Amino acid sequence: MNLHEYQGKEILSSFGVRIQRGIVAQNAHEAVAAAKQLTTETGTSWYVIKAQVHAGGRGKGGGVKLAKNLKEVESIAEDIIGMNLITPQTSAEGKKVHQVLVAEDVYYPGDNEPDEFYMSVLLNRTSGRNMIMYSTEGGMDIETVAEETPHLIFTEEIDPSVGILPFQARRVAFNLGLSGMAFKEMVKFVMALYTAYVKSDASLFEINPVLKTSDDKIMAVDAKVTLDDNALYRHKNYVDMRDIREENPIEVEAKEVGLNYVDLDGNVGCMVNGAGLAMATMDLIKQAGGEPANFLDVGGTADAKRVETAFRIILKDPNVKAILINIFGGIVRCDRVAQGVVDAYKNMGDAIKIPIIVRLQGTNADIAKELIDNSGLDVQSAVLFQEAADKVQAVLA
Ligand code: GDP
Ligand code: MN
Fold first, then answer.
1. How far is the CA of 170 from the centre of ligand 1 (A)?
2. Quick check: is 118 catalytic?
3. 3-state DSSP helix/strand/coil % of the chain, to nearest 5
């Protein structure tokens, strides 16, 4: 689950990571009230208004703006809320902005080269350890830094069973070229950041930029946080942070009916049981010259009801030109699945206007094939994997 910047900062702050203070606002009126409150709490008189969407690069797209008084807070908030924000990380259509974060201005006026660092915490799957990735080149796109100046990116690996050791945090501060008070602040920042990552069961914390203020404080100015969905049951207070307006609507619907669905860009819809077979089926479609339109694992109980639900979800994607059903009847019998397919097809009236190819293997596969072939419907059956691929290729041609 991805979070908004303001939610990520809330989590960071709760673990003692210093953050740029801010208050979220749903409209210009709330933005002005938020600014006033920030002035009371922090003494700031300048503010940054930041679009809250699940995408980075907001600054470049015009979604982060400096306001020097309350009038500007109001007009900038008015402009940003409701806008369609296009950034290097959104699709070409952009993302609609529903809310802004009104934050204290933490940059020193007139400082053209503030000390901005990059820092992220994530899992290194190869070594099986957590990793802090950091760089002196903050505030810019880390992919560009990795490409052009890879020697300016450092990593610190942490054994999850031991946790972060103080010398590791000191090494980070040293490599970032800090000394004195800023050095001590960075050590505290890194220790707290790592603790927050572990305790919140996150899979990614990315802070870009981490700022060294003019009075040598270290703070998170931005926060991209991804939480591990499988651990959410341990964090009831984070569950409400889900903002489904930011998620793919078909995926949200699939989740509600208990289907494992991931939307993709291609034209062949897939309905498969088991994640491994689903992956293999996607490979097969690609080999046959198609592109999978989705990943869909219908699970073990592929009865008529479930097959129909899966059909409806797949057909919501207007790019789908054919559907390949690939099901292995191990526990569930193939004839029952075939009956499910036929019943679902009939139930849906004329909702299905594209060719369907069905491959059923396993228990009672022969009876299943007969059922499909004698159904009188526009459904083709296949026995072998390759045969299914050829039929997909034929209908796409
Ligand atoms: P992103 O573009 O989506 O990564 O959003 P960020 O939160 O990183 O903000 C973009 C840029 O806005 C930062 O790199 C900063 O240069 C700038 N920015 C953020 N906060 C402040 C602030 O308090 N004052 C000023 N002057 N600039 C800020
Ligand atoms: Mn950023």
1. 26
2. yes
3. 40, 25, 35
Single-letter code of the amino acid located at 396: L
* Selected catalytic residue, list 137, 206, 246, 308: 206
- Of all protein residues, the one whose alpha carbon is nearest to atom 10 of ligand 1 is 59
∠ at Cα 226 (223, 230), nearest 5°? 155
Distance CA 100, CA 338 (A): 51
Residue 302: pLDDT over 80:
no
394's tokens: 């034929």
Cβ atoms of 38 and 118 closer than 8 Å: no
Q: Using one digit for the tens of pLDDT, what is the confidence trace for 242-295?
A: 999 999 889 999 988 889 999 999 999 999 998 999 999 999 999 888 899 999
Choosing from 6, 47, 118, 345, the catalytic residue is: 118
The average pLDDT across 310-336 equals 90
The reported pTM is: 0.85
Strands (E), the chain: 22-25, 47-51, 64-67, 84-85, 95-96, 100-104, 115-124, 129-135, 153-158, 202-212, 218-220, 224-227, 260-263, 268-272, 294-297, 322-329, 356-362, 379-382
Six token digits for residue 396? 């796409």
**Active-site annotation holds for 107:** no
